[in-house]
Amino acid sequence: MLEIKNLHARVAEEGTEILKGVDLTVQDGEVAAIMGPNGSGKSTLSYILSGRDDYEVTEGDILYNGESILEMDPAERAASGVFLAFQYPLEIPGVATMTFLKTAMNAQRKARGEAELMTPEFIRRVKASAAELKIDMEMLKRPLNVGFSGGEKKRAEILQMALLEPKLCVMDETDSGLDIDALKIVADGVNALRSAERSFLVITHYQRLLDYIVPDTVHVLYKGRIIKSGTKDLALQLENEGYAQIIGEAA
Ligand code: ADP
Ligand code: MG
Ligand code: MG
């Protein structure tokens, strides 16, 4: 599904290198967790996967289903099935969440050469996914993310993910700002989307989320490099020992 090879990247206008040779392979159906202390480059990696143009790849490649996506813009990547759930979801005043969802779904369907979704079918899908994520339909009449609580924003991100049916789901610290009940709801929603054809990059600072979304692999990102990879036991080790031990070993 995804092969990141010796990826070096920097902030386009500023020039500081943030990713310094990331190597990572994610198989079809795999749930890979990326952990790491603040400032490691986790969000940067997620932005670069989604194609944000204020970051610049200076070396290496990103292969998605065997083909480089470096030349693809964010819309093309989304149309081909890459989805990013943001660490800090943007508020979009003046655009009702329902309108946003319908526009996004139909834009993606168009890019895939599929017919536009008619309103009754759209509503049916939104209701089903919203119920699963315990999202009140009233909330979806409000402008996207405006006045939503931290937990509601994260649930709205997962709702978008469920409706857009991506192949590669990148979730950047979806657990931050969630209380334990909301965390379980989000995890259930994500687990329901797991399949042999869909892969996940679950980015998190804490192991807690991984009690509910159990990953196949765990990778530690530190100062722009993967310094250790393992199974879910690595997340437990981090929980017990903190990052200092593993950083020390890597040095
Ligand atoms: P993480 O998500 O792991 O906390 P980030 O990817 O947000 O890490 O940041 C990695 C490093 O890159 C940090 O030192 C951060 O300050 C720097 N950085 C990220 N984006 C920018 C930017 N747009 N301009 C300047 N520095 C940035
Ligand atoms: Mg951070
Ligand atoms: Mg981050």
From TrEMBL:
Pfam family, one: ABC_tran
InterPro entries: AAA+_ATPase (IPR003593), ABC_transporter-like_ATP-bd (IPR003439), ABC_transporter-like_CS (IPR017871), FeS-cluster_ATPase_SufC (IPR010230), P-loop_NTPase (IPR027417)
Stretch forming the signal peptide: none
SUPFAM superfamilies: P-loop containing nucleoside triphosphate hydrolases
Domain ABC transporter: residue ranges: 2-248
Keyword set, alphabetical order: ATP-binding, Nucleotide-binding
SMART domains per UniProt: AAA (SM00382)
Cited Gene3D superfamilies: P-loop containing nucleotide triphosphate hydrolases
Tree of life domain: Bacteria
Presence of keyword Secreted: no
Stated family: Belongs to the ABC transporter superfamily. Ycf16 family.
Protein name: Fe-S cluster assembly ATPase SufC
Organism of provenance: Jiella mangrovi
Organismal lineage: Bacteria, Pseudomonadati, Pseudomonadota, Alphaproteobacteria, Hyphomicrobiales
